[in-house]
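Justification of resources, computational component.

The compute hours requested in this renewal are based largely on the per-chain cost of generating structure records like the one below. Each record pairs the submitted sequence with a full structure-token output. That output is archived, and it is also reused by downstream analysis tasks.
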Amino acid sequence: MALGGTVISFAGTRSGTAPLTWGQLAIWQAILRTAPDDHYFNFGRVVEVPRGARPVSVAHVSRGIGLLVERHEALRTLVGPEPCQDLRGRGELPIRVAADADPASLLAELSATAFDYAEEWPLRVALVTTGGPLREEAVTHVVLVFCHMAADGLGAEQVVRDLRLFLLRGAIPGDPPRQPLDLARWQESPDGRRQAAGASALWEREYGRIPPTMFDRPSGAAEQPPIRRAVLTSPAVHMAAQRLALRYGTSTSTVLLTAVTALVGEVTGHESVAVLPIVSNRFGRDTRTAVTTLSQEGLFVLGSAPRAGLGSAFPDLLAAARPAVLRAYRSGYHDPDDRERIVAEAGRERGVPVHPYCCFNDMRFAERVAEHDDELIRRARAETSLSWPLSQNELNCRFCVHVSDATQISVTADTRWLSAADVERYLLDLERLLVEEALR
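The structure output for this chain reads:
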């Protein structure tokens, strides 16, 4: 693999400063609590050059990257003091060029270190090229790594979409979407404060009555380092969740959130369970295609099933989950400073810190629900596997469930509060619950 590089210059239409948006502030608080392991929040995409655009040169792809940085202001925004958004009008972005490289390896390498939020552009780029003297600059893949302060998953998908359009058409059509600088100013307006007040009321009500935290007792010997991630690869879970979604007229995300929440109640013994699902907050036309970080934690509260007969109670739990999910969506678009105040007030009033430290993130962008017969679901359990791909010292949570694609669900846990053995047992119990309920 031969490595090289280039630098592209960009010039946007404006510069300026503004407060962090609610989404930026939420991830900034999480970054501070996770440092020095905050590379945990980096994420990326590998974009294969469309066949209809090949062959394409390094210079042409670099021009497209420059246009993206000019179009989407978040990609040239640093974190200034206070903190605040520091939008720069112009600059230079380094791009790595690697001949005959493995895109996945480049993605892992570029994601492995935390961003310098005050000095480094929040986008890292590498281009994979094919070898041979006649096709020296033929780009096959573009590797993009995002700082979470600049984009969430849906924001990154918009960048990918725009890049593909440029490669196919030579231009990015349409006006740019709403920019984070403008979004921050709206959030400080009377309309924005009314939105914040409505969300705060939901947090305030629930923080007065939920258990102080979900995982409040050590469950076994802690690992070193203590933060571990287990990934369950299970086609059976995927098929079972689809069947249950069809049966009860809901989404697979609601099915999975309900099952995750019910099992947290089983593990912890809490009759009422609070989970923080990540809400996209892209419900308006002006934010649907915005490149920024809009996702925030909502608050989902559900009475857990009786200790015996969880499966028989699952339909009732799903019925109770529907309004709870809507409340979680409404609570997700909130001012994190309001939430910090509510957390502090609840702790003073109750005499104990109040925070669920239990979250759920369905990172899938779309789902196609299909029916699967009983025998197919049963046979799929033979394909289940479990791996442990991550370990680190710090995390801003104790228990995080991620749904990364149709067949993969992971738990990232602080083993001081939930042992590795219990994490593995939790994931296998989750599969068992969903499959048994689907076959019931």
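The two ends are 53 Å apart (CA to CA). Residues 2-185 form a domain with the Chloramphenicol Acetyltransferase fold (CATH 3.30.559.10).
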